[in-house]
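Practice record 12: protein with inosinic acid.
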Amino acid sequence: MSTLVVVGAQWGDEGKGKVTDVLAATVDVVVRYQGGPNAGHTLVVRGEKYKLHQVPAGILHGKECVIGNGVVLDPQAFLQELQELRSRGVAVDRIHLSHAAHVIFPYHQWLDELEEERRGANRLGTTGRGIGPAYSDKVARMGIRVADLLRPETLKDKLARNLEQLNHLLEQVYGVEGYSLDELWERYVGYGETLAPYVTDTAQLLNRAIAKGDRVLFEGAQGTMLDLDHGTYPYVTSSYPTAGGACLGSGVGPTHIEAAMGVAKAYTSRVGDGPFPTELKDQVGDYIREKGGEYGTTTGRPRRIGWLDTVVLRHSRLVSGLTSLALNHLDTLTGLHPVKMAVGYRIGGQVWESLPLHMEDLFGAEPIYEELEGWDEMPSSLRSFEDLPLQAQRYVQKVEELSGLPVAMLSIGPGREATLVRFDPFKAYT
Ligand code: IMP
């Protein structure tokens, strides 16, 4: 048995795609277990840029790629992604799609926008991809699953029931035309026919792979602070990006998960609204945003930037039982003097070294910083830890000390040569 869950240890966009891409070369199976087209990975492989949204990063290595039951799938966007990969010579026949994954329909996207509009000043800043409404339908037991797309009559029944309710709202409350059942039905039956060869019971497939000793990598999307339970609720996504989500979203039991690695940047970024204690609204923030190319892969939105927050890293370690950390974008801090990381918060005169009970308190939290000496140069490739400037080495050591996690992977640039693997994250560090 050899299994590893890779999760975002901040608010998403930590560079999980790149980390899984590096590790994918050494594994047999890569699994996506939650989220949907709200996720976005930008990978640079042999100088070529790939943008993936629903397909696991392992595809570029010809590995078995599983899209688990915990994912919400937008068939149109997914098939487009496959087409793009195929047109660039990437084989996509090793993708396995769970029959139990839920399907995103155009009305989910419409509801996503509508709900955001209604929230007004309290908007969440969603990606507008219909994620929340698709998961709401799942929990309300009116969701439509991938398997339903393969049975036209079942699909028609379920769609008809959903549209009856939705079209009533559209026509009676909003005074606009509802969705046509036949049109939507025909379109999704068509998707079902194209998707059919990929659809299988992925829980069976994964448990078989684990039983025969395959190396399986679970690739989380988004990040801990966007987790429905463990994040900054309600400024979260609607799924479980933490390590426990890998079990729920794939049908692999917790006794089969061996290690969990958190991925963090050497600073913090966040897209969307919600509290962000270490946010930098000054030139330092602009410097990091430009140098780090901090614009959303899915939406193109400029990301909010802040110093590294070790309260967040400790929280991540705790709720996911992390065994190691991958630290990305260390190069982006080059040229800043000093560099800082938050060790705790001051909230109403009280010091917190963990997250407060009331999420709202984070809006007014004043970070307590540790300041470290910066550095002015960074090598272009990394073969050993000692290749780093001394100050950068100390920065990494401080992150290890304050997060309580050993840094297994370290990255100073987008290409694979700029990533140092210090120990195998599949094995707990001793
Ligand atoms: P939703 O997932 O589209 O419902 O958006 C909910 C929140 O999660 C918003 O703040 C989004 O910006 C954020 N979010 C969703 N997906 C990602 C991601 O892949 N990276 C970073 N933030 C994300």
